[in-house]
Structures are given as C-alpha cells and as structure tokens.
Amino acid sequence: MPYWLMKSEPDEFSVTDLEKRETGRWDGVRNYQARNHLRAMQPDDLFLFYHSSCPIPGVAGIGRIVRGAYPDPTATDPQSPYFDPKTAGSGRNPWSAVDVAHVETFAQVLPLTALKAEPALAELALVQRGSRLSVMPVGEREWAQILRMARSSQAI
DNA sequence: GCCAACGTTGGC
DNA sequence: GCCAACGTTGGC
Fold first, then answer.
1. Does residue A123 reach within 7 angstroms of strand B, measured from its CB?
2. In a domain, A17, yes or no
3. Comparing C-alpha atoms, which of A56, A73, A61, A55 is closest to residue A19?
4. Tens digit of pLDDT for each residue in A75-96?
5. Nearest protein residue by Cα to C1' of nucleotide C11
C-alpha cells in the first residue's frame, strides 16, 4: 500500500483541526503534479500530515484516505478562496480532492530539520532542494523511518 | 520580510 | 515553441 505526505498550513487546516472533526476534505490543490498524486490515492492509504509555513514546519501526525479523488468543488465555488475562474468558465474541472480521516496526532511535531538531518531520508521528495510539491509519495522504508523518529522524539 | 526555486502566463 | 516576466511556495 502506498504512503503519502500532504502539506497544509496549520493556520488554515491543522492535524488537530482534523482530529476534532474526525474527517475532512483535502481540497484546494492547484498543481498538476500534486493533483496526479491525489488521483493515485486509494481508500485506506495513509499519509503524513505536514505543517508548512509555521514556526516549526514538520510532520504533525497521520491521516487516512477515506474517499479517493473526485472533482474539487472549491474550484467552481466563487465563495471559496481556492476558486479557479478558468475552471468555472470552462465547464470542465481538472482539479481533484480526496476525503481524509484523522489517525494520530503526534505529541510533538517532528521537525523538518530532523528529517533533513537523517541520512536515511535523503531520497525523500520533501527534503529535496527547492521542492514545493504539496502532495507527494513516501516510500515504505521512509515511512517506517519517519514513524520511528516521531515515536522516539515523543519519548523524550 | 527576504529570497531561492519553481510553475504559469503571454508576447513574439 | 521559446523565454522573460510574474506569481506562488515555503524555509529561514
């Protein structure tokens, strides 16, 4: 089963927000590469919930896909901050959303700095120079490594 | 707030 | 189809 990582600004939508609501819709992705990853997701796939553009960027918890990709309604909703006029005018919606459920909130965020410092994670797309991709696959070995790191940082 | 890196747009 | 200009992402 594939694993994923998805970025969100915690001011907008954090792992604790997801925890409170239990489920949510992951929408607003407006990059084709990221969208293609969304479309590859299947129910029960797990993902790392990454907090970006915040005091401590890093992996904050785990979520699970509960519904595979479907047309992103925010693209055609003029009230949405993710409204895409081009999509709305075209009658065809190229953007995708998935539904997600909360699995776990880490006691502490596993910071990006720790991920970058770990040689076993050198291949991770997240730590590549200049990577801005907001939805990306995570290899099984990397997944296991990141969970180990998250667990051990909680034990401190 | 700065800036590097990247994606997108639009003139030609 | 090229490529400069612009906008966005996201760490620092």
1. no
2. yes
3. A61
4. 988 888 898 888 877 778 899 9
5. A53
